Amino acid sequence: MEKAPVLVVTLCRFEHFKKCIESLRSNKDAVFTDLFIALDYPLYESHREGYEKISKYLETLDGFKSIEIIKRNENFGATKNLESGIDYLFSKYDFIIISEDDNEFSHNFLEYINKSRDHYSMDKSLFAICGYTYPIKLSIDNDVLDNFVKNKTFFSAWGFGIWKDKYYEAAKCKNINYINQFMINSSLKVMKSSLKNLYYLMRIIANQKEAIGSDIYFSLFFVTRNMYVLNPIVSKVRNIGWDGSGENCNYNELYSNQVIDDKCDFDLNGTGELLMNHYNYNLKKYYQLNFNQEMFALTSLMLCKLMGIPFFLKITHFYKSIKRKTNG
Predict the structure, then answer these.
(1) Helix (H, G, I), strand (E, B) or coil at 229
(2) Which residues, at least 6 apart from 326, have a Cβ–Cβ distance to it below 8 Å?
């Protein structure tokens, strides 16, 4: 079976981008992999130096089956650059690997994605294959052979593989009208999956804006469809964007210095189910909300269920206006 193509989106973070590409090139599957780079155009002069360095670096880049540079002639912005690149790849392929430029990969990341795709290609319950694993503590017995787990709680967008049909079905969750209907029909399923997912759902409804971040709307999608994603037991991705340089990331050493798999080869061991309950339980604990966030999520849900979304939005707007006057 053909190896999955990889899309990497970037603009001007040269050092991050170089680490990302060099780590991908260290994979033995790289020479069989088509690589696509979506290079956005600088919006500000401060972007220019990094952009030029990336352009020059790409001139001599090799080590992949093929390399195609999608070079923008105007600034698309992070979201449009990503989504346009995804649309382009899905016009050619049914399964792709997606990454931003601040992910650093294990030597066996590509093999993990490709072997998981091949093994689970007929499983309609599998939504996506995530390369990242959250820094949670797992109590693993010596007789547990599973080196991956079925995750039914959260999606991670830090380097993942996904099928075309599942991507576009889940992308509907970005639309606010869809989200409003989604809340009416599926909010209790969201709450059952985790209070964090419910919190994000209620924030989107309160703001009446599109869901930002595929990790949010993908999570909302797959947890309400009784689907799951795969995560390796040992992370195959380190997000180095948590050094404070990322658009949506501050500084967090836990992520930017996270230990990742150092093996060169990967084989699927086990069923992914032996640690499933333990993993999902600890994942919910890791992303536990504070008291105010819990109260917002639960109270908002109760108001929407009892009084309807329009009434909830009136209360939300009234509260925001009082808060602005108080702060002003």
Answers:
(1) strand
(2) none
- Give residue 247's pLDDT: 60
Separation CA 245–CA 17 (nearest Å): 12
8 Å CB contact between 21 and 112: no
**Counting every residue, how long is the chain?**
328
Euclidean distance between CA atoms 181 and 26, whole angstroms:
45
**Distances from the Cα of 60 to the Cα of 16, 21, 44, 312, angstroms:** 18, 13, 26, 56
Measured distance between the N- and C-terminal CA atoms of the chain, rounded to whole angstroms:
61
3-state class (DSSP) for residue 56: helix
pTM of the model: 0.92
**CA dist., res. 88 & res. 164, Å (int):** 11
What sign does the CA torsion over 124, 127, 133, 135 have? negative
Backbone torsions φ then ψ of 222, nearest 5 degrees:
-75, -30
Give, in degrees to the nearest 5, the angle at Cα 124 between 118 and 129: 50
Q: Write out pLDDT tens, residues 48-98.
A: 999 999 999 999 999 999 999 999 999 999 999 999 999 999 999 999 999
CB count, 10 Å around CB of 181?
A: 12
Beta strands in 236-289 (DSSP E): 237-239
pLDDT digits (tens, 9 = 90+) for 95-134: 999 999 999 999 999 999 999 999 999 999 999 999 999 9
Give bridge partners of residue 230 from the DSSP assignment: 129, 150
Q: How far is CA 287 from CA 179, 260, 294, in A?
A: 22, 20, 12
- Residue 228: both structure tokens together: 């799951």
The string over 197-209, giving b where at least 16 C-beta atoms fall within 10 Å of a residue's C-beta and e elsewhere, is bbbbbbbbbbeee
CA dihedral 86, 181, 284, 156 (to 10 degrees): 0
- Residue 275 has a pLDDT of 87
